[in-house]
C-alpha cells in the first residue's frame, strides 16, 4: 500500500540551546514508510558513525524509521523551512506541507 500524506509536527519557534524534536508520521503505508526530512528544500543527512568536519556540523539526529528529527541543542542556524517525505517503495512518495521553524 502506498503511503498517505504524512503529518508533520514542527514547532513554529524554539529557544536557542533547547532540545527540539520534529516528528513525521503516516499510518497507511505497507510496508511501513521510511521518512526523510528536508530543510529549505535540501535533504538532511543521516548522522553516521564516521567523524570528519562535515559530521561535526550536524547538530541533529534523524531517525528514518520513526520519522523524528531531534536537535540536541538548537541554534539560530537551524532556523528554516522544514518538511518530511514518506516513502516505502510503493507508489509515489508523499510530502507534508512546509513549516517554518524560527530559532
Keywords:
elongated, Immunoglobulin-like, 37% strand, 103 residues, five-stranded antiparallel sheet, 1 helix, four-stranded antiparallel sheet, mainly beta
Polypeptide structure, described:
The protein is mostly beta strands. About 5% of the residues lie in helices and about 35% in strands. The chain has one domain (about 5-100): Immunoglobulin-like, CATH 2.60.40.10. The protein has one helix and nine strands, in the order E-E-E-E-H-E-E-E-E-E. The strands form two sheets. Strands 3, 4, 7, 8 and 9 form a five-stranded antiparallel β-sheet that branches. The termini are far apart. The mean pLDDT is about 90.
How do the helices and strands line up, and which of them pair or pack?
Blueprint: E1 7-9, E2 20-25, E3 34-39, E4 42-43, H1 53-56, E5 60-63, E6 68-71, E7 80-87, E8 94-95, E9 99-101
Antiparallel strand pairs: 1-2, 2-6, 3-4, 3-7, 5-6, 7-8, 7-9
Amino acid at each position: 500500500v502506498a503511503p498517505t500524506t504524512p503529518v508533520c509536527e514542527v514547532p513554529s519557534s524554539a529557544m536557542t540551546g533547547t532540545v527540539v524534536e520534529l516528528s513525521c508520521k503516516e499510518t497507511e503505508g505497507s510496508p511501513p514508510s521510511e521518512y526523510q526530512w528536508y530543510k529549505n528544500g535540501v535533504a538532511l543527512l543521516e548522522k553516521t558513525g564516521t567523524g570528519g568536519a562535515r559530521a561535526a556540523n550536524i547538530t541533529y539526529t534523524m531517525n528514518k524509521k520513526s520519522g523524528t528529527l531531534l536537535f540536541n541543542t538548537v541554534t539560530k542556524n537551524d532556523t528554516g523551512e522544514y518538511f518530511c517525505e514518506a516513502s516505502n517503495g510503493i507508489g509515489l512518495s508523499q510530502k507534508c506541507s512546509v513549516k517554518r521553524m524560527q530559532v
